[in-house]
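User: Hey, my collaborator sent me this sequence without any context and asked if I could get a structure. I don't really work with proteins. Can you help?
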Amino acid sequence: MPSASSSSSLTRCAALLLSTALITLPAVAETTPEQDELTLGFIKLTDMAPLAIAAEKGFFEDEGLFVTLEAQSNWKVLLDRTISGEIDGAMMLAGQPLAASIGYGTAGEVITPVALDLNGNAITVANAVWEEMKPHVTMGADGKPAHPISAAALKPVVEARAEAGEAFNLGMVFPVSTHNYELRYWLAAGGIHPGFYEAGDVAGQTGGDVLISVTPPPQMPATLEAGTILGYAVGEPWNQAAVKKGIGVPVIADADIFAKNPEKVFGLTRAFAEANPNTTIALTKALIRAGMWLDASPENRLEAVEILSRPEYVGADKAVIANSMTGTFEYEAGDIRPAADFNLFFRENATFPYYSDAVWTLTQMRRWGQIAEAKPDAWYDETAKRVYRPDLYKTAAEALIAQGLAKAEDFDFDADGYREATSAFIDGVSFDGTQPNAYIDSLKIGLKASQTPADAAVN
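Assistant: No problem. I've predicted the 3D structure and written it out in structure-token form, which is a compact way to encode the shape of the chain:
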């Protein structure tokens, strides 16, 4: 049975159950999965680690689940196959369940009962671009660049290319990826307009100083080396791969753009969760345990590096994966710096599906025109609660505590599902998830109020 302290923590979550359209949850004694053979999708990135660890450490089996993990060719295929039922669930970009549920791109009712990680990305530029940036970068007393590096150092490089009639092409992984929004946030904070999405411009390049397009993560280093793009935003190991190949320099990690930013989540269709409530809770329990294991010790991270290096998972060199997974990150070759929070899998409530994380993603969709019309604050709240499911997370966590597999103090269940307001952004702007429109209007570059890309003043 949960302790008195765990009961108190769990009571604080009661409001979540009242504010969400509930899936019928299993009774404590009825925990047998309705569907025990499952296929889950992933993309070859290090933050697929919770899925690999849940499989390799027997956490899925502990829940009576027999899971096949299947790499997908790209994010669109992964989402489409989840919605169609070809696979049962998947590691997803934080924006994918939200975009699907509001009908942006592939439409479908997708929910997330558990987040997979926070942070985990970086922005890399080609060597030639870095050399052009360096005169505009502040140097520390040790002669190395002072971090975080502002995109203001990139602005004169972009302007010089424009004067020469050259486009400045950048890559990111998917239109509704956190990578896209982080890249755009960094650029805008440095005075570079990343462009708007509008009807007829699904690439989001209208009015932009740069041209941002989609490049699949594993192809980014080769595309950079070929000169097709001059930089990119991606997860690991593809930034560190550019360092190892000697073709690019990561200039900023996403934790320095937005600390503890939402990254990957576990997504499955609402229909699957409604038909298989026990299975959904079992999956959530296994993934919470995987996150706990990953953040439990440096030794576990080293073991995870070996597992992820296997061809069936990420299939990259162990040394490259270790650069970010074990508490450090390499910028220029040899410039290795501490980065304890580069990947957060459980610490800082990384697995909790906060409504505010969903709202932030939606604000960026609105800021850049993917949401074409202004929405009231209530719409952001309602959309977040339709997709992010802390009620399911709470049920899974409560079961782990009751089984002695977790402690009440392992969790910081939030009373209303919103993180506290934060200004942990590179530009210092404050974000309060309960006031999305005020936040949108406070950002210097981007759509305001009822603006559309056609009538917005391009700064």
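In plain terms: The chain has 19 helices and 16 strands. You can pass these tokens on to your collaborator as they are.
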